[in-house]
Amino acid sequence: MAIRVLLVDDHEIVRAGVRRLLEQDQRLKVIADASNGEQAYQLVNELKPDIVVLDMIMPGMSGLETLRRIHRRDSTIKVIIFSMHNDAAYASQALTAGAKAYIAKTDDITDLPKAIFRVNAGNNFLSESMAQKIALSHFNGGDNLMEGLTTREFETFRLLAEGYGLEEIAQTLKLSNKTVANYQTILRNKLDIHSPIALVRLALQYGVITN
After folding, report:
1. CATH code for 3-138?
2. Would you say 142 and 136 are in contact if contact means Cβ atoms under 8 Å apart?
3. What is the DSSP letter of 87?
4. DSSP string of 137-152, one letter each residue
5. Beta bridge partners of 78
6. Whole-angstrom Cα distance, residue 5 to residue 180?
């Protein structure tokens, strides 16, 4: 029986390309695709796919938040993050949140079907380049700060670094303004940052934002 895959990415051209790639192998079947986290969450509940291939950053509910909600509903669903971000900070956050594999879109595209087969068999998967980055970050102590953040804290940190206001973050993460303000205070204390400029510099240092 073919492995049933749900694709989630906000770019239609990416979904179409990945679908073509996966369906070259008769052992894989793309049963549906979604353009955002809310739609993905609904389809997971309806279709119960074997594997979810999930983008990290999307409008509205992010990949991390979608992953968190999927696993809160059904922890047996296996999720592979397929992201434009090739930084260890993002991969570490995804794996901590419960992803079984992390593939950067800049990696060899053939890593994706390999990851699906590995994850479906009960294993984890990282591309060779990402595994090296994570290993180096641990060796150098480079990602300790990011790894110390919860999923919610990391998402708040990323959005603050991208210039979102507290109210915008609250709407995006579906939290109260007070809760987001509390996360901002926690971030200041955990990361020892006390100005917006310091926050952006730290986000650039760890590859959370690129410009």
Report:
1. 3.40.50.2300
2. yes
3. -
4. HHHHTTTHHHHTS-HH
5. 51
6. 34
For the domain bounded by 145-206, which CATH number is listed?
A: 1.10.10.10
* pLDDT string in tens for the chain (211-residue length): 899 999 999 999 999 999 999 999 999 999 999 999 999 999 999 999 999 999 998 888 889 989 999 999 998 999 999 999 888 888 888 998 899 999 999 889 999 999 999 999 999 999 888 888 877 766 655 546 887 888 889 989 999 998 999 999 998 888 899 999 999 999 999 999 989 999 999 998 888 887 6
- Please enumerate in sequence order all residues whose Cβ is within 8 A of that of 33, keeping only pairs 6 or more positions apart, or say none: 6, 7, 8, 9, 15, 19
Closest Cα to residue 100, out of 77, 83, 84? 77
With residues binned 3-state (H G I as helix, E B as strand, rest as coil), the percentages for the chain, rounded to 5, are 55, 15, 30
Adjacency order of strands within the sheet including 51-54? 28-34, 3-8, 51-54, 78-83, 101-104, 125-126
- The pTM of this model reads 0.79
- Domain limits, the chain: 3-138, 145-206
